Amino acid sequence: MSSPTYDGAVTDTDSALSDVPVIDPALAGRTKKVLLAAPRGFCAGVERAVVTVEKALELYGAPVYVRRQIVHNSHVVAGLERRGAIFVEEADEVPEGSIVVFSAHGVAPSVHEQAAARNLRTIDATCPLVTKVHHEARRFADEGYRILLIGHEGHEEVEGTTGEAPDAITLVDGPSHADEVEIGVDEKVVWLSQTTLSVDETIETVERLRLRLPLLMDPPSDDICYATQNRQLAVKDIAADCDVLIVVGSGNSSNSVRLVEVGLEAGSAKSYRVDSADELDDAWFIDVGTVGLTSGASVPEVLVDGVLAWLADRGWIDVEEVSSAEEHLIFSLPTELRRDIKAAAAVPRDAGR
């Protein structure tokens, strides 16, 4: 929302001034400051997935098909589309014999089967941390466990994990659904989770489940990914000092939406999610001194820079980065892509001339 403007036709001074935002005198001299949370932005799994599509386009040429959004960020997807990527909902939309990349969120075995039936060349960009959950689901199902999968219904990651053992998995969509779970008296039961959930909400869900299922077994390691946890902890570190928290991320990004919730729960007076600086509203910043800023795990830093520039134009030029953890994890590219890159590099430059 832009500041009020007047065309000169108004002669009633009191009427014109009534439209001007009233600033609380107690806040008038308040220092404008930005607390920039770190870590933020791309995680290792997102970086790997995006680079996978970029390298595939370089190696094979356009078009390269991608099943679903490679990561949940509209700007990343639009950028890849401009380079020749074509995003589809299902494998049966891909022309037979074409190359298709599976997104970072993972796919069910049935999707691999559909791709094979169409003779598609597949590149699996599933985040290795999601793949770990898939392996756990298969193992526990093979061992006769009922698996309680904590996650959001309809999310692509949940669909992929459920597809690994559909007869053994029961979805638990948050604490409010914990009391609805029906488990046989003699069933062995274990819980797994979507990797992008709120840590606190997942803990609450498990505690609610354990009240009814005292023998509920924990997974061998935490399923919520390191990047999700780190970004939530970083928000918690700054939230109480923020008059407003801005989270950069798309609406279909689970981890970005969770950051808004975590910020409010941790003490931020207000919290908003935006795709980019274009969605910021001047009204959100009336009487605001300290602005908190972070971004979801699928957000390129250029979008954060855009928000910082927008804020700087309005007087928030003092920026302090608050770091709660360091991240150095790097995932290698999918095996099939590395193999083809290596093969292409081995071909003499003048071959075929």
UniProtKB/TrEMBL annotation:
One of its GO terms (biological process) is dimethylallyl diphosphate biosynthetic process. It comes from freshwater metagenome. HAMAP family: IspH. Keywords: 4Fe-4S, Iron, Iron-sulfur, Metal-binding. Pfam families: LYTB (PF02401). GO terms for molecular function: 4 iron, 4 sulfur cluster binding; 4-hydroxy-3-methylbut-2-enyl diphosphate reductase activity; metal ion binding. InterPro entries: LytB/IspH (IPR003451). This is Unannotated protein. The keyword Metal-binding applies. Its cofactor is [4Fe-4S] cluster.
